[in-house]
């Protein structure tokens, strides 16, 4: 049984195996981002805090890109649209900056699609070698991270950005909490 908290987030399991625990914490972090970005219009998703140019909309688009890069691409897939048409050398922050041109619906659809693809890729990968399996894509030096490393990295990526999301969302409408 999955417990859902008052913000619609699935609580990570208290007593699962390693993969179940990691996936539970990743899903909780994903749901935290959805909560922090939920219910906002374009102005709310484009709000900034202090000197930072970071926005909640940019965060949704960036994390959609990160989901596709770490799960789909690192497990052998090609870049998906819209990432495959970006000149990343010319604009390495395209994901963050281009979000201002997208509607809230487009941003959520892009992010939710990336998460759905990631879940499917991870389920397949875990059925074929578990957490110790290595990504098919390699770093320039030939090393590949394990699936365990990738899941831990994704939890860290979301947790870091959810901290940013807390500050931005509070500045937009006062919403606070975890």
Structure write-up:
The chain has 178 residues and is mostly helical. The protein has a single domain (18-173), classed as Four Helix Bundle (Hemerythrin (Met), subunit A), CATH 1.20.120. The protein is 55% helix and 0% strand. The chain has six helices and no strands. The protein has helices at residues 18-37, 42-45, 56-73, 94-98, 104-127, 147-173. Helix 1 packs parallel to helix 6 (147-173), helix 3 (56-73) packs parallel to helix 5 (104-127) and helix 3 (56-73) runs antiparallel to helix 6 (147-173). The protein is globular.
Number of strands: 0
Helix-strand makeup class: mainly alpha
Binned strand content: under 5%
Low-pLDDT segments: none
CATH architecture verdict: Up-down Bundle
What is the terminal separation in angstroms?
23 Å
**SSE order in H/E notation?**
HHHHHH
Q: Major beta sheet, specifics?
A: none
Task: Assign the CATH superfamily.
Answer: dinb family like domain
* CATH class value: Mainly Alpha
Number of helices: 6
Overall shape = globular
Q: How much helical structure, as a percent, in the residues?
A: 55-70%
Rg, nearest Å: 17 Å
């Amino acid at each position: 049984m999955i417990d859902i908290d008052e913000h619609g987030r699935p609580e990570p399991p208290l007593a699962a195996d390693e993969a179940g625990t990691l996936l539970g914490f990743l899903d909780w972090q994903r749901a935290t981002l959805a909560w922090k970005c939920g219910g906002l219009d374009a102005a709310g998703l484009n709000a900034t805090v202090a000197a930072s140019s970071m926005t909640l909309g940019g965060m949704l688009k960036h994390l959609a890109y990160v989901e596709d890069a770490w799960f789909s691409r690192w497990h052998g897939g090609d870049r998906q649209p819209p990432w495959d048409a970006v000149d990343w050398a010319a604009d390495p922050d395209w994901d963050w900056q281009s979000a201002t041109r997208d509607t809230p619906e487009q941003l959520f659809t892009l992010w939710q699609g990336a998460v759905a693809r990631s879940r499917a890729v991870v389920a397949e990968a875990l059925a074929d070698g578990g957490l110790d399996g290595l990504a098919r894509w390699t770093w320039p030096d030939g090393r590949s991270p394990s699936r365990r490393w990738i899941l831990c990295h994704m939890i860290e990526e979301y947790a870091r950005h959810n901290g940013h999301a807390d500050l931005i969302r509070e500045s937009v409408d006062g919403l606070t909490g975890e």
